[in-house]
Structure formats: structure tokens, C-alpha cells
Amino acid sequence: YVAQLYHRISKIEWDYECEPGMIKGIHHGPSVAQPIHLDSTQLSKKFISDHLWSLVDTKW
């Protein structure tokens, strides 16, 4: 249930089979689907968090 709720809010389809240290998925935005490909070994947790939150649509 929680995973479904996160998916509904964020509209991110995660790739759970990617290599360790990588964060991959597809963000289904309002106008276009956008791939997500982040290397967590090269980027800070704050940057990753801020980037992912910036994808969430604030218009309800």
C-alpha cells in the first residue's frame, strides 16, 4: 500500500534491478516521461533528495 501511495504521488517508476549505487527509474511528468539516472556514489544525498522532490508536481 505504501509503495503504491509513493508511486501515485511521485509518479516515479523505479528500476529495482539496476546496479548498486545507481538510482534509476522513469518520472511520468505532466507532459513527458523523463528518465532518472543518478549515481549515488558521486552525488550527495541532499542533491539526490532535492532533485527527486523537484520532480513532484505541486499542482493538485
UniProtKB/TrEMBL annotation:
Molecular function in Gene Ontology: microtubule binding
Any Gene Ontology biological process: chromosome segregation
Gene3D superfamilies membership: Ncd80 complex, Spc24 subunit
Record localization: Nucleus; Chromosome, Centromere, Kinetochore
Keyword match Ligase: no
Quaternary state and interactors: Component of the NDC80 complex, which consists of NDC80/HEC1, CDCA1, SPBC24 and SPBC25. The NDC80 complex is formed by two subcomplexes composed of NDC80/HEC1-CDCA1 and SPBC24-SPBC25. Each subcomplex is formed by parallel interactions through the coiled-coil domains of individual subunits. Formation of a tetrameric complex is mediated by interactions between the C-terminal regions of both subunits of the NDC80/HEC1-CDCA1 subcomplex and the N-terminal regions of both subunits of the SPBC24-SPBC25 complex.
Protein role: Acts as a component of the essential kinetochore-associated NDC80 complex, which is required for chromosome segregation and spindle checkpoint activity. Required for kinetochore integrity and the organization of stable microtubule binding sites in the outer plate of the kinetochore. The NDC80 complex synergistically enhances the affinity of the SKA1 complex for microtubules and may allow the NDC80 complex to track depolymerizing microtubules.
Protein name listed in UniProt: Kinetochore protein Spc24
